[in-house]
Write a structure and sequence with these properties.
By secondary structure, this protein is α/β, with parallel strands linked by helices. About 35% of the residues lie in helices and about 25% in strands. α1 crosses α2, α1 packs across α3 and α1 crosses α4.
């Protein structure tokens, strides 16, 4: 069995498409398809059901996927132990982050890292409701809570705060609430409740018992845009809201505190490119710590 064939199978299994897997690996999709076929022939079983719109794992493919992931973890560990890991800062690192932090903070700043290391490629992707570091859906994840399970390495990246905001136009038309109880007579913006996938996103419960939003958006950046458009009052990340002069902080005594955590799989601890990105993320938030308070 050829390890490169196994590695290519993992890429297809994780992406669900040969084309997208070939792009991530940097190989021709026809070559990738042949390599997976060669693996199936070596195993004398069918691993994938190929469809026009993607690939599904067979029952045997599901079983082999778990074995292949264990092989991958052991391979990375062995490379680390004998010193045969990447010593240059090169290759691809996929960073998963919440949309507010990823779009408003990381996206304008990660270019500094790729300029510093021209052979490094960064992929910034949104963290979905569920994701797997062990399946390499992200090499590094910025999470709202510290993961409690799995072979993961986590550290606090930064604390941050949120507050109540409205646009200047909205306040001119509707007046500013003097107390939290006054919020009941204003239009409110919040998350789609049944899509809240972590208790850390339940900001509204810390302000008032029943937020009862008139406009629900499952995106921090989307909520910011809605408040900017005078759609109502929202609980926004302070480091994002302060970027817009038209947003006014109201009831400043109401402050919500949360934290971001950096997490990656323990099998990647010796990969220079991963460590470099983790260190750079910490460098960024340390340099600009004041904006998160």
């Amino acid at each position: 069995m050829n390890w490169d064939d196994v590695r290519m199978f993992l890429a297809v299994a994780r992406s669900g498409q040969i084309l997208s897997a070939s792009k991530r690996l940097g190989v021709n999709h026809a070559t990738l398809s042949r390599r997976v076929t060669a693996l199936e022939e070596a195993l004398k079983t069918r691993l994938l059901i190929r469809r026009t719109n993607g690939c599904d794992l067979t029952a045997e493919g599901e079983i082999f996927l778990h074995a292949a992931e264990r092989m991958e973890t052991e391979m990375l560990a062995a490379q680390a132990q004998i010193g045969r890991i990447d010593t240059a800062v090169a290759g691809t690192v996929r960073v998963g982050a919440p949309d507010g932090f990823g779009v408003s903070f990381l996206a304008p700043r990660l270019g500094k890292l790729t300029a510093r290391f021209p052979e490094l490629r960064i992929q910034l992707v949104p963290v979905p409701r569920s994701f797997s570091l062990s399946q390499r859906e992200a090499d590094i994840a910025i999470t709202l809570e510290r993961p409690e399970q799995g072979r993961l390495i986590s550290s606090k990246l930064t604390d941050y705060t949120l507050g109540l905001y409205a646009s200047q136009d909205y306040l001119s038309s509707h007046g500013a609430p003097k107390t939290v109880d006054d919020l009941k007579s204003h239009r409110r913006i919040g998350y789609v409740e049944d899509l809240i996938f972590t208790a850390s996103l339940n900001f509204t419960g810390e302000v008032m018992r029943s937020w009862d939003a008139a406009f629900e958006i499952s995106s921090a950046t989307g909520q910011t845009e809605a408040v900017r458009s005078s759609a109502g009052i929202g609980i926004l990340h302070n480091y994002i809201a302060r970027q817009y002069q038209e947003l006014i902080r109201i009831l400043p005594e109401t402050t919500i505190r949360r934290a971001y955590w950096t997490t990656y799989h323990e099998s990647a601890r010796e990969l220079v490119r991963v460590r470099t990105v983790v260190d750079f993320l910490q460098e960024l938030v340390t340099e600009e710590h004041g904006i998160f308070i």
